[in-house]
Amino acid sequence: MWDRVRQSPDWRFVAIVIPLMALLQVIGPEYFRYEQDWVTSGEIWRVVSAHWVHVGWLHWLFNSLSLMVMVSLTSPGWSIRRWVLQTLCLAVGISILFTFLNPDLVSYAGHSGVLYGLFILGALSLFAHDRLIAMLVIAAIVIKVVMEQFDFYDFNTGEMIGARVIVDAHLYGLLIAIAIALIWATYTMNYGQTEHSN
What CATH number should be reported for the domain holding residue 86? Predict the structure, then answer.
């Protein structure tokens, strides 16, 4: 396990993030969770930090295990810088969409919206090497988001973690991941063309 952490940037990121989320949980989620009035209060850090704290330790455990499953399934092989950049984009994007599209949302804490986006981005990275697993991951995420949005099935997650699940976070994570993937594809395509022309 430790060899895997040392050799893989994916697992190094996981080894940093899970204890970091635990530390923020110990300090107190109330200092870091998303608050709808973050603009007027000037507490800008909540836009990012909200996605690293949880409503309770069981919530933290679920999301920590989910992050490990995401890395195990997709093994994206991203650099630490890319991990950080994509995670920040997802966190900020979800919070901004909350601000404009969910004005009645008083507060939010959780990593699941970011996780949904990471699952999509990881699956897209895997697509060239294992299309079957990549398509299954993407299909599972999309189907679950659709079911949540249209109340096709109650997954009872809220009862387990002791708080209402903000399913829009999952939808926003999915949509922002698609936007990130399109931007990344455009950038790499243009960069490759520039390199080729030189």
Answer: 1.20.1540.10
